[in-house]
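User: Hey, quick favor. My workstation is busy. Could you predict this chain's structure for me?
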Amino acid sequence: MAEVVYVLCALTSIICALLLFRGFRRSGTRLLFWSAWSFVGLALNNLLLFVDLILVPTIDLGILRAATALIGLMVLVFGLIWESR
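Assistant: No problem, here it is.
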Protein backbone atom coordinates (compact mmCIF):
# COMPACT_ATOMS: atom_id res chain seq x y z
CA MET A 1 0.00 0.00 0.00
CA ALA A 2 2.88 2.37 0.72
CA GLU A 3 4.09 1.95 -2.85
CA VAL A 4 0.84 3.38 -4.17
CA VAL A 5 1.10 6.40 -1.89
CA TYR A 6 4.68 7.11 -3.01
CA VAL A 7 3.71 6.91 -6.67
CA LEU A 8 0.62 9.07 -6.17
CA CYS A 9 2.68 11.72 -4.37
CA ALA A 10 5.19 11.77 -7.22
CA LEU A 11 2.42 12.03 -9.82
CA THR A 12 0.76 14.84 -7.88
CA SER A 13 4.02 16.80 -7.76
CA ILE A 14 4.60 16.29 -11.48
CA ILE A 15 1.08 17.40 -12.34
CA CYS A 16 1.44 20.49 -10.12
CA ALA A 17 4.72 21.36 -11.84
CA LEU A 18 3.15 20.98 -15.28
CA LEU A 19 0.17 23.13 -14.33
CA LEU A 20 2.44 25.80 -12.87
CA PHE A 21 4.59 25.83 -16.02
CA ARG A 22 1.44 26.15 -18.12
CA GLY A 23 0.23 29.03 -15.95
CA PHE A 24 3.61 30.72 -16.28
CA ARG A 25 3.53 30.38 -20.06
CA ARG A 26 0.07 31.95 -20.21
CA SER A 27 0.51 34.79 -17.73
CA GLY A 28 4.27 35.34 -17.55
CA THR A 29 4.16 35.62 -13.76
CA ARG A 30 7.65 34.71 -12.64
CA LEU A 31 6.55 33.39 -9.26
CA LEU A 32 4.76 30.58 -11.11
CA PHE A 33 8.07 29.78 -12.80
CA TRP A 34 9.92 29.43 -9.49
CA SER A 35 7.08 27.45 -7.95
CA ALA A 36 7.06 25.06 -10.91
CA TRP A 37 10.79 24.39 -10.55
CA SER A 38 10.26 23.85 -6.84
CA PHE A 39 7.67 21.18 -7.61
CA VAL A 40 10.07 19.56 -10.06
CA GLY A 41 12.53 19.19 -7.18
CA LEU A 42 9.82 17.80 -4.93
CA ALA A 43 8.76 15.35 -7.63
CA LEU A 44 12.35 14.15 -7.91
CA ASN A 45 12.38 13.76 -4.14
CA ASN A 46 9.24 11.62 -4.29
CA LEU A 47 10.63 9.49 -7.11
CA LEU A 48 13.84 8.95 -5.15
CA LEU A 49 11.78 7.97 -2.12
CA PHE A 50 10.09 5.27 -4.19
CA VAL A 51 13.41 4.06 -5.58
CA ASP A 52 15.06 4.14 -2.16
CA LEU A 53 12.39 2.32 -0.17
CA ILE A 54 10.84 0.03 -2.77
CA LEU A 55 13.19 -0.70 -5.68
CA VAL A 56 16.59 -0.80 -3.95
CA PRO A 57 16.04 -0.97 -0.18
CA THR A 58 19.62 -2.11 0.41
CA ILE A 59 21.07 1.22 -0.77
CA ASP A 60 20.50 4.30 1.37
CA LEU A 61 19.55 7.28 -0.78
CA GLY A 62 18.56 9.41 2.19
CA ILE A 63 21.16 12.11 1.59
CA LEU A 64 20.26 12.38 -2.09
CA ARG A 65 16.55 12.57 -1.21
CA ALA A 66 17.21 15.28 1.36
CA ALA A 67 19.35 17.20 -1.13
CA THR A 68 16.64 17.22 -3.80
CA ALA A 69 14.04 18.38 -1.29
CA LEU A 70 16.39 21.10 -0.05
CA ILE A 71 17.17 22.28 -3.57
CA GLY A 72 13.47 22.36 -4.45
CA LEU A 73 12.65 24.44 -1.40
CA MET A 74 15.66 26.71 -1.92
CA VAL A 75 14.45 27.43 -5.45
CA LEU A 76 11.07 28.46 -4.06
CA VAL A 77 12.62 30.65 -1.36
CA PHE A 78 14.92 32.25 -3.94
CA GLY A 79 11.93 32.96 -6.18
CA LEU A 80 9.96 34.47 -3.32
CA ILE A 81 12.86 36.71 -2.33
CA TRP A 82 13.67 37.67 -5.95
CA GLU A 83 10.07 38.56 -6.75
CA SER A 84 9.59 40.63 -3.59
CA ARG A 85 12.08 43.23 -4.81
